[in-house]
Amino acid sequence: MTRYARVLAGLYLSGILAACSGQSTPPLYSWQNFQSQQYLYLQGKTDLQSQIDVMEKDMEKTRAKGLSVPPGFHAHLGLLYASQGRTDLAQGEFTQEKTLFPEATSYMDFLLKNLGQNSAQSQSQSQSQSQSQKVSS
């Protein structure tokens, strides 16, 4: 192969590579405000309901774009619901996290198991408090 043919082949390959690099891979997940909401939660700088509202709006926006929420989104939303005592919604979010991200199954099963225990404990505590109030009256 002559020198001229090698130069042309090199330019041709460079052109093909440049053309292919212009295509970008679409994102798998729509992160929206998820990371900043987690950070605010861990710092204790936001109340639960406002964070739930933001995350629910982000989920609607994500679905409207045809994308998926990132790993941990449903788990975090479930923890927020559980913190408010809304165990039915928390259970649904934990189950959704398990379905979308099977690698989270063991942790979600742990949370689901403890979710039932925590609600039963809080009910028994409130019953014992009301009984002790009746006895002291």
Low-confidence stretches: 132-137
Radius of gyration: 26 Å
N→C terminal distance:
104 Å
What's the pLDDT, averaged over the residues? 83
Q: Can you count the beta strands?
A: 0
Question: Percentage of helical residues?
Answer: over 70%
- Structural class estimated from helices and strands: mainly alpha
Largest sheet: none
Kindly estimate the percentage of residues that lie in beta strands according to DSSP: under 5%
Number of helices: 6
The gross shape turns out to be: elongated
> Strand-and-helix sequence, N→C?
HHHHHH
In short:
With 137 residues, the protein is mostly helical. The chain has helices at residues 3-21, 34-43, 48-65, 73-83, 87-100, 105-136. The radius of gyration is 26 Å and the shape is elongated.
Summarize the structure in words.
The chain is elongated and about 80 Å long. The protein contains six helices and no strands. The N and C termini lie far apart (104 Å). α4 packs antiparallel against α5 (87-100) and α5 packs antiparallel against α6. With 137 residues, the protein is an all-alpha fold.
